Automatic annotation (TrEMBL):
<dbReference type="InterPro" id="IPR058462">
    <property type="entry name" value="DUF8149"/>
</dbReference>
<dbReference type="Pfam" id="PF26476">
    <property type="entry name" value="DUF8149"/>
</dbReference>
<feature type="domain" description="DUF8149">
    <location>
        <begin position="6"/>
        <end position="73"/>
    </location>
</feature>
<protein>
    <recommendedName>
        <fullName>DUF8149 domain-containing protein</fullName>
    </recommendedName>
</protein>
Length: 74
């Protein structure tokens, strides 16, 4: 049984860092801050860590479809 205090329903996004060879999952609302903090602390601010590219591509596809950007205009 789940209670109001359980945060298991919060979407968690995979963040990958190829230089550190690490992957972590953070709540959707914390993604930008987590990536910025990681890159600032470990890579002198260079954009190394990022949302898993496969997930980012899928989100972009879903957004484009929702916005009608993928419809044929013949």
């Amino acid at each position: 049984m789940t209670t109001a205090n359980d945060s298991d329903e919060t979407p968690r996004v995979p963040i990958v860092c190829p230089d550190c060879e690490t992957t972590s999952r953070v709540p959707l609302s914390d993604v930008a801050d987590a990536i910025e903090r990681h890159n600032d602390q470990l890579h002198d601010g260079e954009a190394v860590a990022e949302v898993d590219p496969d997930i980012a591509d899928r989100i972009a596809d879903l957004a484009a479809d929702e916005l009608g950007l993928l419809e044929n205009t013949e």
